[in-house]
């Protein structure tokens, strides 16, 4: 998720004497998130957003990103299942807080869907059916709130492709939608500063299997 | 970028001269460093995470007062306040964090307990496990027979635990008693449990020393908890070689209802596959079930579960005395309703309660005449759990039991030549305290009292259990308890004043868990007293007694073999009784001294299939041959069986399943029937009691229809 925009923004704000403390902290945290590679770094980033969330009680954005970090931990297959579930519990507690605030609910529901998928991956045999249904439901709500949400569209595609792969179905049927999403990404992704804007690289990854 | 650099330097210099550093080290109570803790100055965005050595460091703008908060997942947060800070003075603080008390990670009593879901952390069998265990054919009690402490008797099909008879295990749904958990069958032809494992989200199986909340079971209890809310509306169709099943689920905002109907008929199957017995009417049954769930206003739930089942069969056997063929017909009508509720009141109280009603009638017809049995049972119960403190909770409650049993005999011409009845009302109360001395030590003590209207007597049954967990996921647990159970109704109709039989259990267990592997070992001693005995005058008394001791080992591993999951269970038991018509202490004929079960499941992702295999071996059971002078002198051949099953995920919502029991075709003998009339050589002739068929084949197709199209009965397999 390396973007130069956040770095420039951070620099610009740091030069402004009257920079808003919250925005400054968020920018620094976002650039920390960009460069986080190891598990320790991701957890540190999660902590950073956790601190911002603790002080900025009415803001949904730090909670969104803290959730995203913990979901990333939840997907880490090198960790024990119980630990992964604990991180996802933390992620869920941030989601629950954010949902009560003035948040972009479409983005929150998309993130919630990703959380359900992370739970599924930990134990697909026993959680498969239940978590798949919950993830699909959350994405349906997300798209109802904002049909143009590119992240929700991406996650929906990702879920469907995952399921098709499991059943050995041909995934090239998804290519038109993948290419379409990639082409219109920038148009769909016109969001305010600090808002979640990730996903184009993930769609690019999906495109790779279509190039064949 | 040239103009920016000097600006940055100025800012940096400004920052440096007025900065104040906050640093230190975070450790746990043993002094080990904690990595990844979150340290923050409240009300600001300043803070840091602790590094690999527990150290942290960050710079802050000068503050007059600072409240520093340290938090970490799984630990109690700590806050430190600093007043009147000198400008520029650096703050050093070293913090020790204590683990927070979380009942999910604390020790739980495991002596004599196996559970899934909220009952215990030592997860053993989920509903998915039950259905994929080869040889169990999705019967909960059959799947339990692959666990240690159980004995498999092929001629009965029921669950026998640690030297106890099948009656000594009580079956409960949502905490309410199921009086008749098994289907009815001809004598020495196996029955099965009545319940579909997918109705249940958690199963707790106790091999002894169970909670004071339950009674009237000398050996063990099986507690099944019905599912909570379903995810979506579905229609499930099952097509099998033995019959069909249709179930539909509808849900609304806070509730759901599932209704199902099933029809089984083994006639087509028995026409194809040769049977050891002659069937004049192959087993046939039809029934239905309804399951209703509704969340109540606050945090509660009301559930109602009802089933109707009608079954019949007719077998032909040779009468050893007359050498003539006889017909045995069985007709069973079973009606069962269970309603229960759970409600949380305030922060500290949880109330649970419910009632069940069972009406079971069996009609047995032989050439000589008819026997009718009619059983009616009610169980009503109410419990309250009070959270005294974070570490202690108390549970108490009361039950009411009512049973009414009628047995009628008649010749073919005139029914009810003679009838006998018995009934009983019981009032019980119990209290139990569960206290966590620490996260690693828990004590559970309880007392149960039962009053019998029939004998006008009451009994007192203490229970005590303790568990201590130590390093590396190891745990030792001990349990003790006294248990009372009324004799079976067939004895009570003869002597209505028979008192309760009783047993005292002493259990010690050691468990260890690794990543995806579990080891359980347990040793026990049971003392039986007050068992039903028939003296030489034919009078029924409570003069029987006995003992049982043994050890079990259980090892489950879903890690070592990739995509494979297996468990090995070995039980050893020594037991003797002097009861019923025994003249001396002897090992009962339903006991295998050694039992070994190996269950294996493998997932082939390329084939989207799961293979299951179960190997069961039981050492020779004792057997009483009336031709021998010594009692229980003979031994039956050892029991051996290898069962296989295969599940194939054909499409997202279609699954095929096939299973074969006793693949290697071992000839198992479960006992002998003896003639009453000696033959020409003075020997009593006998015929072996064998399974209805040496091998059982099953093929089924399961289809799920739902709006999303992605639901399937994979959970069912």
How would you portray this structure in words?
The complex is a heterodimer of chains A (212) and B (717). Helix content of chain A is 76%, strand content 0%. Chain A is mainly α. In chain A, helix 1 (4-15) runs antiparallel to helix 2, helix 2 packs antiparallel against helix 3 and helix 4 (61-75) runs parallel beside helix 6. Chain A is globular, with a radius of gyration of 17 Å. The model of chain A is unreliable at 14-18 (pLDDT under 50). Chain B has 717 residues and is mainly beta. Helix content of chain B is 5%, strand content 56%. Chain B is elongated and about 115 Å long. Residues 1-17, 115-123 and 713-717 of chain B have low confidence and may be disordered.
Question: Which features does this protein show?
Answer:
heterodimer; A: 212 residues; mainly alpha; 76% helix; 0% strand; B: 717 residues; mainly beta; 22-stranded antiparallel barrel; five-stranded mixed beta sheet; 5 helices; 41 strands; 56% strand; disordered N terminus
Strand count of chain B: 41
Mean pLDDT of chain B: 84
Total count of helical runs of at least 4 residues of chain A: 11
The main β sheet of chain B shows up as:
22 strands, antiparallel, barrel
Q: Radius of gyration of chain B, Cα only, in angstroms?
A: 31 Å
Question: What is the CA-CA span between the terminal residues of chain B?
Answer: 65 Å
Radius of gyration over C-alpha positions of chain A, nearest whole angstrom: 17 Å
């Amino acid at each position: 998720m390396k973007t130069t925009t956040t770095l420039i923004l951070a620099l610009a704000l740091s030069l402004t004497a009257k920079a808003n403390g919250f925005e400054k902290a968020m920018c620094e945290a976002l650039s920390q998130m960009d460069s986080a590679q190891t598990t320790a770094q991701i957890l540190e980033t999660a902590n950073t957003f956790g601190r911002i969330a603790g002080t900025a009680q009415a803001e949904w954005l730090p909670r969104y990103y803290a959730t995203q970090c913990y979901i990333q931990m939840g997907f880490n297959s090198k960790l024990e299942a119980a630990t992964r579930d604990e991180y996802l519990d933390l992620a869920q507690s941030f989601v629950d807080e954010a949902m009560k605030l003035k948040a972009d609910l479409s983005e929150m529901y998309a993130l919630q869907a990703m959380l359900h998928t992370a739970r599924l991956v930990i134990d697909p045999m026993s959680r498969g059916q239940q978590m798949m249904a919950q993830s699909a439901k959350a994405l349906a709500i997300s798209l109802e709130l904002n049909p143009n949400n590119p992240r929700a569209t991406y996650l929906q595609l990702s879920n469907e492709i995952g399921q098709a792969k499991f059943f050995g179905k041909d995934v090239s049927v998804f290519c038109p939608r993948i290419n379409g999403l990639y082409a219109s990404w920038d148009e769909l992704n016109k969001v305010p500063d600090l808002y979640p804007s990730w996903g184009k690289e993930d769609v690019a990854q999906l495109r790779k299997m279509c190039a064949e | 970028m040239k103009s920016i650099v000097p600006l940055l330097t100025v800012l940096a210099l400004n920052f440096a001269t007025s900065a104040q550093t906050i640093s230190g080290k975070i450790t746990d109570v043993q002094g080990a460093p904690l990595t990844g803790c979150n340290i923050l100055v409240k009300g600001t965005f300043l803070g840091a995470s602790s590094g690999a050595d527990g150290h942290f460091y960050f710079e802050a703008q000068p503050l007059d007062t600072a409240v520093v908060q340290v938090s970490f997942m799984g630990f109690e947060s700590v806050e430190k306040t600093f007043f009147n800070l000198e400008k520029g003075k650096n703050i050093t603080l070293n913090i020790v964090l204590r683990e927070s008390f979380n009942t999910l990670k604390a020790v739980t009593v495991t002596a004599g307990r196996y559970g899934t879901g909220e009952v215990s952390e030592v997860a053993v069998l989920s509903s998915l496990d039950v259905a994929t265990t080869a040889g169990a054919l999705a019967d909960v009690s059959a799947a339990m027979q692959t666990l240690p402490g159980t004995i498999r008797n092929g001629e009965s099909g029921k669950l026998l635990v640690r030297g106890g008879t099948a009656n000594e295990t009580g079956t409960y749904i949502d905490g309410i008693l199921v009086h008749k958990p098994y289907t009815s069958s001809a004598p020495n032809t196996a029955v099965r449990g009545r319940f579909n494992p997918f109705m249940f989200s958690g199963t707790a199986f106790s091999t002894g020393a169970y909670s004071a909340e339950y009674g009237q079971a000398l050996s063990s209890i099986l507690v099944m908890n019905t599912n909570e809310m379903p995810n979506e509306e579905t229609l499930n169709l099952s097509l099998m070689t033995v019959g069909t099943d249709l179930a539909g689920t509808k849900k609304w905002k806070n509730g759901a209802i599932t209704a199902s109907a099933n029809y089984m008929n083994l006639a087509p199957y028995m026409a194809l596959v040769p049977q050891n017995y002659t069937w004049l009417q192959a087993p046939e049954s039809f029934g239905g079930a309804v399951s209703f769930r509704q969340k109540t206003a606050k945090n509660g739930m009301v559930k109602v579960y009802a089933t109707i089942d009608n079954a019949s069969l007719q077998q032909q056997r040779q009468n050893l005395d007359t050498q003539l063929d006889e017909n045995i017909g069985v007709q069973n009508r079973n009606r069962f309703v269970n309603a229960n509720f759970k409600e949380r009141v305030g922060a500290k109280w949880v109330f649970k309660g419910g009632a069940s009603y069972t009406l079971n009638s069996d009609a047995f017809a032989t050439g000589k005449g008819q026997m009718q049995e009619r059983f009616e049972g009610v169980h009503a119960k109410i419990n309250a759990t009070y959270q005294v403190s974070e570490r202690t909770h108390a549970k108490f409650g009361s039950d009411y039991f009512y049973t009414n049993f009628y047995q009628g005999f008649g010749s073919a011409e005139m029914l009810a030549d003679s009838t006998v009845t018995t009934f009983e009302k019981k009032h019980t109360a119990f209290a139990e305290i569960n206290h966590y001395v620490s996260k690693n030590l828990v004590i559970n003590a309880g007392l149960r009292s039962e009053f019998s209207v029939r004998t006008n007597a009451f009994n007192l049954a203490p229970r005590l259990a303790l568990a201590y967990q130590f390093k590396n996921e190891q745990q030792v647990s001990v349990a003790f308890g006294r248990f009372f159970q009324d004799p079976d109704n067939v004895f009570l109709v003869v002597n209505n004043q028979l008192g309760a039989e009783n047993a005292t259990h002493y259990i010690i267990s050691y468990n260890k868990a690794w990543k995806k592997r579990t080891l359980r070992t347990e040793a026990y001693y049971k003392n039986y007293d007050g068992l039903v005995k028939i003296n030489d005058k034919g009078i029924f008394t409570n003069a029987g007694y006995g003992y049982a001791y043994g050890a079990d080992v259980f090892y489950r591993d879903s890690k070592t073999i990739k995509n494979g999951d297996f468990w090995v269970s070995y039980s050893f038991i020594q037991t003797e009784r002097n009861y019923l018509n025994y003249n001396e202490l002897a090992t009962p004929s339903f006991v295998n001294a050694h039992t070994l079960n190996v269950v294996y499941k493998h997932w082939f992702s390329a084939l989207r299939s799961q293979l299951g295999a179960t190997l069961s071996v039981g050492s020779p059971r004792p057997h009483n041959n009336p031709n021998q002078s010594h009692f229980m002198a003979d031994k039956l051949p050892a029991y051996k069986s290898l069962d296989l099953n295969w599940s194939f995920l054909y499409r997202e919502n279609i699954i095929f399943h096939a299973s074969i029991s006793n693949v290697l075709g071992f000839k198992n003998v479960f006992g002998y029937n003896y003639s009453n009339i000696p033959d020409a050589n003075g020997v009593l002739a006998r015929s072996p009691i064998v399974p209805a068929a040496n091998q059982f084949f099953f093929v089924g197709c399961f289809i799920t229809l739902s709006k999303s199209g992605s639901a399937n009965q994979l959970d069912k397999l």
